[in-house]
């Protein structure tokens, strides 16, 4: 059996078209959605991510205010900037690129963002709303994973889902989304981590496997039930001297082994990543739309 290879870029393109329609509607009403993208320091991977986000905004007609701060910026200064952005009428979303330098407390910074502008969905208010199944911002990567499942026309109701990874930005919110009593939820979810006993046995029971680990080859073909859906969130650099840049990107799963057994599988790159980017635009436009309705 050869698994369907899920084209994340094509799914993301559909979402971007929706975003574009919403932006056009808002522009007609005199509202341009605005996103502030804040980068502290010069981490090369973070620079790549924020540059991509700014380009995405420009393409979608979203105004982006790009703010680059030196790596030794005091926490106080960053928090003051966020407070200014909270008051800025042209800004509907605030994105602080993580990780922040070690001297800055990430929790304090995230908590300084007004929840109604927290388009990353990391603020405790938005995480709380997600757990309570209330309307708030859903973090972009978990939201993108839901969109992938939805695009396959697959019901999660009654499905056994195994998520490997329990981080605050991927595994934990995804688990809550998938078991909540709502369309796109109602699954039975098992969350695995480094203390999980017999990982392979647990994964083997799953109809849907979601790997968000940060370690290549954590999920191998022998751990996958025939026909299961495998969503690989992981992005890992492995040395590859045949590539100009000296490395290539791989996920958390053994893609070549898994595609012989799974029913459908996301590639890395080209799977979850494009959805994460698209959902940030979605949340920004949603924030602008909600504000326009309030005014
Ligand atoms: P993280 O905060 O480091 O969390 C990793 C999780 O995996 C932890 O819960 C950890 O368990 C668990 N884990 C690690 N090794 C394990 C093992 N051998 N067996 C079982 N569980 C294991 O990572 P993250 O931020 O969630 O990101 C995960 C991956 O997704 C990374 O590769 C990241 O780059 C990628 N990512 C991709 C996107 C995208 O858009 N495609 C977005 C976000 C993240 P403990 O809790 O016990 O430590």
Can you lay out the helices and strands and say which pair or pack?
Elements: E1 4-5, H1 8-28, E2 34-40, H2 44-60, E3 63-69, H3 75-87, E4 93-96, H4 106-112, H5 124-131, H6 140-151, E5 160-164, H7 171-179, E6 188-192, H8 199-204, E7 208-211, E8 229-232, E9 236-239, E10 247-250, H9 255-258, E11 264-265, H10 272-294
Helix pairs in contact: 1-10, 2-10, 6-7, 6-10
The protein binds NADP nicotinamide-adenine-dinucleotide phosphate.
NADP nicotinamide-adenine-dinucleotide phosphate binds next to helix 10.
Q: What can you tell me about this protein's structure?
A:
Helix content is 41%, strand content 16%. By secondary structure, it is of the alpha/beta class. It has two domains: 83 residues, 3-Layer(aba) Sandwich (Rossmann fold); 133 residues, 3-Layer(aba) Sandwich (Rossmann fold), CATH 3.40.50.720. Helix 7 links the parallel strand 5 and strand 6. The mean pLDDT is 97. The site of NADP nicotinamide-adenine-dinucleotide phosphate (NAP) has 26 residues, from helix 10.
Small molecules bound? NADP nicotinamide-adenine-dinucleotide phosphate
**Helix/strand order, N-terminal first:** EHEHEHEHHHEHEHEEEEHEH
Taking pLDDT < 50 over at least 5 consecutive residues as the criterion, the unreliable ranges are none
Structural class: alpha/beta
Overall pLDDT: 97
Approximately what portion of the residues adopt beta-strand conformation? 15-25%
What is the overall shape? globular
CATH architecture of the largest domain: 3-Layer(aba) Sandwich
